[in-house]
Amino acid sequence: MPELIDQTNDRGMTALMAAAHGGHAAVVTMLLERGADITCRDDRGVSALDYAIRENKQEVARALLDCGAKVDALKKGLNIESATMLAKIGAEKGIMLSGMTRDQTEADFSNQGLEPADAILIGSDLKLMAVLTTLRLDDTKIGAVGAKVIAEALKVSAVLKHCNLLKNNLDIESATMLAKIGTEKGIMFSGMTRDQTEADFSNQGLQSADAILIGSDLKLMAVLTTLDLSVNRIGDEGAKAIAEALKVIAVLTSVDLRVNSIGDDGAKAIAEALKVNAVLKNLSVAYNSNIVGVAAQQLAAAALGSLSLEVLSGVPIKELREDKLTELNLSSMGLGPTEGIVLAELIKFSAVVTTLVLGSFLFGNNIGDEGAKAIAEALKVNEVVTKLWLNNNKIGDDGAKAIAEALKVNAVLNKLYLQYNSNMGDAGEKALRDAVMGRSEFVLEL
Question: Which regions does the record annotate with the repeat ANK (predicted)?
Fold first, then answer.
């Protein structure tokens, strides 16, 4: 009888599979009672339980599980509804769904293309595991839906302390929820460990939510001194999270935030952090071209007012204050208005810097009119700078006119290079030429 009952059709399907696919619970029960083989799979490798789960047939799934059907549901393309149904049964019957075992201490699902439904299954299993301390779910596709499920499981876990969830396209809400749980339970979400002294996340495609998780972890780390987040997309929300961490962490001395799409709100948050942070020595916010206006001014003021900051985006604050440099080349550093303002304040009363290079024929910076105006104010009182390169700096007419006004009172500067500032028009160029008219030895390149 069992042999007959397990005969297959042209697709390799048994009667049990067909009944499971159709959701006929009574037929499934009858077939099981008559000895139908629950381990059989069709030509595509699909079992009766797989069919029941995919079609969201809860009664059928229960019957098959009661008869000992093995669950192999991870990475099977389940939808949220089916995964939720299976998780409910798993919780009721104490059945593991993801392939993990109760005695595991570590589990690695990273870079496996998991979907939100897979996270639901893993979340169900986590509630049954008493010794798991480390879980990797980084670089998957569980998204915000999956992250929220994992977060709920973490609330009841007593031993899990490392749960890497970076690079999952989380939204701000889910990342913030996870960060709150992390703070309350001491759980790390970025893959960092408490004994790390350096962390390099550069050029990893990280977004705002990832930075929120990293910011949460930073508050749990007592020896980390160097953090590199350059060339990502953490944006304002990510910058705010890092800034909040900077307010409380007492050992981090170097933070690199270059090329991160940070704008005014992020810059203002960093400025507030600098007011209370007493240990940060090196900070870079270069190549964040959206930091302008009031935000740039506030960040510059905070950097200059910091008691610990020695370098901002390559600008050597400490060395300039100590008059250790006679020449300074900062071309092609991605400097913006913030750095232009800081630099201007530092050279204003410098007694030794004679040459300042902020641009070149091929590459420059992005100090713009704001930075140019600040440099102009410095030139009005500086008595030692003789050569100044401002090529390729997106300086327009307003910046050019400000520099022209400074040249009327500055008698020391004799070489000024302003080529390749495409925003500068005839009015700006005329103002500059008029300002140095009659100074035969003055070199002005436009």
Answer: 11-43, 44-76
